[in-house]
């Protein structure tokens, strides 16, 4: 589901409600299409084209509802913007809400401030889309999984990063992947008795469940490019909070950094990439410190893998078990089109 936005003059929108159809702003009429923006683009569109206007209504539209008349075309700075060729039916507008100016004189979008007690509309919209689409196709599978229980064969240890969702990257159906995510996809060492580590056993508990109860056959440690956790370790910044939870958690990758050696003259970004790979390697070693993992791996009943997702490129690299090198799982990423910006 892609959500797109248009800022209409309140009077024009009122007229559209009467007639059932909205013809756009004078600029839209001059250009021959209605200008829309994604959520990431709309604040800048407001600053550039609607500054100071107090009569605006923000229209929220599901891009899919507009069909072929909606084209994604390069505009400002080469970004793709949604352009609607033809009028907008009022019935296709999911929401229309006034767009006030904030104290700083800039428009205040509905998502700028959370409303306490109000569940995010992004989630209710997304859930509706799931019910109408994916759930319909997979209802039988859900029912079967509820009856028979889950039996995923693959466990993925991934990062909390919102761009690196294992179920999305591996196109997984419900029940196929057991996923545990933490900051920087780290597997801690097996430390059942270690002092002060009582609060760091979330991943170990998930491993115990995946390996001992679900009997997964594969464990994949999925690293990724541009990892904020790895950067936090390499940067010498102040902790984000007095608890310094990220600092303490990320300190676990110190052995990987030591093995890599100092950054020296290396470009910082290149050093971060190396550390991302080294950290996956360390997590694979740490996996083998868990007796349940080691025993099953040695018996050939459990296989451990390292992988790395390129985010911007969509490229997946997989660690070669013999050479330890990360190699592309396919050749070029097929059919790469200019990326459509996420709608919301
Ligand atoms: Zn990350």
Would you mind describing this structure in some detail?
Helix 10 crosses helix 11. The longest helix is centred in the C-terminal third of the chain and has 20 residues, at 268-287. The protein has 12 helices and 15 strands. The protein is of the alpha+beta class. 26% of the residues are buried. It folds into 2 domains: 3-124, Protein of unknown function DUF952 (ADP-ribosylation fold), CATH 3.20.170; 150-328, Carbonic anhydrase (Beta-carbonic Anhydrase, Chain A). Bound molecules: zinc ion (ZN). Residues 159, 161, 184, 224, 227-229 line the site of zinc ion.
Tag the structure with descriptive keywords:
344 residues, alpha+beta, ADP-ribosylation fold, four-stranded antiparallel sheet, 12 helices, binds zinc ion
């Amino acid at each position: 589901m892609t959500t797109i936005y248009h800022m209409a003059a309140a009077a024009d929108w009122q007229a559209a409600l009467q007639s059932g159809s909205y013809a756009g702003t004078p600029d839209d009429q001059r250009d021959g299409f209605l200008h829309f923006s994604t959520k990431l683009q709309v604040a800048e569109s407001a600053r550039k084209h609607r500054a100071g206007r107090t009569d605006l209504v923000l229209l929220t539209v599901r891009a899919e509802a507009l069909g072929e008349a909606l084209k994604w075309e390069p505009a400002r700075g080469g970004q793709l913007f949604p352009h609607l060729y033809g009028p907008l039916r009022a019935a296709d507008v999911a929401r229309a809400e006034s767009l006030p100016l904030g104290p700083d004189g800039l428009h205040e979008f509905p998502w700028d401030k959370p409303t306490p007690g109000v569940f995010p509309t992004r989630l209710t919209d997304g859930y509706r889309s799931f019910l109408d689409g994916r759930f319909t196709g997979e209802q039988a599978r859900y029912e079967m999984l509820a009856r028979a229980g889950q039996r995923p064969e693959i466990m993925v240890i991934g990062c909390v990063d919102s761009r690196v969702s294992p179920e999305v990257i591996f196109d997984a159906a419900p029940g196929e992947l057991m996923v545990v995510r933490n900051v920087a996809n780290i597997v801690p060492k097996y430390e059942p008795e270690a002092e002060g580590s009582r609060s760091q056993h979330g991943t170990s508990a998930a491993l115990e469940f995946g390996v001992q109860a679900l009997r997964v056959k594969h464990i994949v440690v999925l690293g990724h490019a541009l990892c904020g956790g790895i950067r936090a370790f390499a940067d010498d910044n102040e902790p984000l909070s007095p608890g310094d939870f990220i600092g303490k958690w990320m300190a676990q990758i110190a052995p990987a950094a030591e093995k890599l050696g100092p950054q020296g003259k290396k470009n910082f970004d290149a050093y971060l990439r190396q550390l991302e790979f080294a950290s996956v390697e360390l997590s694979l070693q740490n996996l083998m410190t868990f007796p349940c993992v080691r025993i099953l791996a040695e018996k050939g009943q459990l296989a451990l893998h390292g992988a790395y997702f390129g985010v911007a490129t969509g490229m997946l690299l997989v660690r070669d078990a013999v050479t330890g090198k990360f190699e592309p799982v396919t050749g070029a990423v097929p059919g790469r089109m200019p990326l459509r910006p996420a709608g919301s």
